[in-house]
Amino acid sequence: xxxxxTEDYDLFxxxxxxxxxxxxxxxxxxxxxxxxxxxxxxxxxxxxxxxRDSNSLYGTSANEFFSLKDYNVSTDITMSAKHxxxxxxxAINKFFTIWADNPSIxxxxxxxxxNATVTNNVNYVIDTETDxxxxxDTDSRYIDLGMIYxxxxxxxxxxxxxxxxxxxxxxxxxxxxxxxxTIRQECEFRNANFGYLKMTxxxxxxxxxxxxxxxxxxxxxxxxxxxxxxxxxxxxxxxxKGSISPRLKGIIRVVIEKFFIENQSCKIKKY
Length: 271
Prior knowledge:
The protein is of the alpha+beta class. It is 54% helix and 15% strand.
């Protein structure tokens, strides 16, 4: 990575709060915002470059027309990712079978919801309706936040900010640590190089419908570190592509938005 860019970023982050507090005019705040947006754009482009390079290497390794193809490489990447997500699933679920026995965890939950009654997911059975990890594919996993609300005996809030903030509390204090510890232990067990596999919190949604692998609809309320107004995410659904007519697509979109955007619940639907 460009050393100058790294230095600019580190300097900006280390002095940001000080500059924000000392800003006395609208112009100073706008200048600060402009600089932040510049750095965001630069790092977003770097992230996109890394993602595309990685996906290209992954794709070409299994391409029969690529002279350096190696099916073993693509198979190893796919199966390693699948294996890691499965053991992370199990570890997350096991945590929620005992979390109510830890006074510090109960205290943390009650700091957010004073009337919460934290209970263990004692009926957990992998790949059943009691499994908190309700959907996943090769490189992603989704956790049923509604089930966690059931475990603390608190109704799902209508307010998106409250819902996304509670999701952050759960992820930042528990889920991220479980993921990191699970992957680290697996790497140590297999004598693997640690640090190449990362899992991070990307989105929080309300109503979600899963119809098959890479086929789902969800209402996003938080994405990549920021709260957002309710927004539909379509994956593998014939609303952008496909053979159906534009008019029919429009009708389907209206029906979907009626249910997913206006619905105040936080439910998971499987088809």
